[in-house]
Amino acid sequence: MKNIKKLVAITLSVLVVGAAGMVYAADIKTPAEVVSALTGKSMTDIYEEREEGKTYGTIANESGKLDEFKTKVLERKKAILDDKVKNGELTKEQADEIYNAIKNNQAICDGTGTARMGRQNGMGFGQGLGGGKGQGMGRGAGCGIRY
């Protein structure tokens, strides 16, 4: 009986932690979802504009939402970095250095993507090799290269 109670307690603990992780992951939105929410455009419209060669920043900028887009994306990247620190993939110092570099780059960001910021970090902020159209959380095998 004692072992069954321990097993139930461990199982419940795992379920609670798993549920918390899913809620946390659900809060992290893709850049496409951020632009869609800020501009009121459908995801289909966003993807069509991306296929035409526009960056998410350009789409946000054309709607007068570039600053809000940059803020939301920075929050998203901070959450990913925090998760990587929590999982032992990065030290707090490494995450802070990457975060500060992203923040500094955003200060000069015009939304066109011409600076190709973030390519050097390879932190998996991208959506993998699928062009960002999946439902991933930006932790795929994208090698950190975003076009």
Question: How would you characterize the overall build of this protein?
Answer:
It is a single chain. With 147 residues, the chain is an all-alpha fold. It has a domain at 29-120. The protein is built from 6 helices and no strands. The longest helix is centred in the first third of the chain and has 26 residues, at 2-27.
Q: Number of DSSP helices?
A: 6
- Which sheet architecture does the biggest sheet show? none
Average pLDDT confidence is 74
Low-confidence segments, given as residue ranges, are: 16-25, 127-147
Indicate the percent of residues in helices.
Answer: 55-70%
Secondary structure tally: strands: 0
Radius of gyration: 18 Å
Query: What string gives the helices and strands in order?
Result: HHHHHH
Keywords: Signal
Organism: Ruminiclostridium cellulolyticum (strain ATCC 35319 / DSM 5812 / JCM 6584 / H10) (Clostridium cellulolyticum)
Protein name: DUF2680 domain-containing protein
InterPro entries: DUF2680
Question: Outline of this structure?
Answer:
It comes from Ruminiclostridium cellulolyticum (strain ATCC 35319 / DSM 5812 / JCM 6584 / H10). The protein has helices spanning 2-27, 31-39, 43-51, 56-62, 66-86, 92-107.
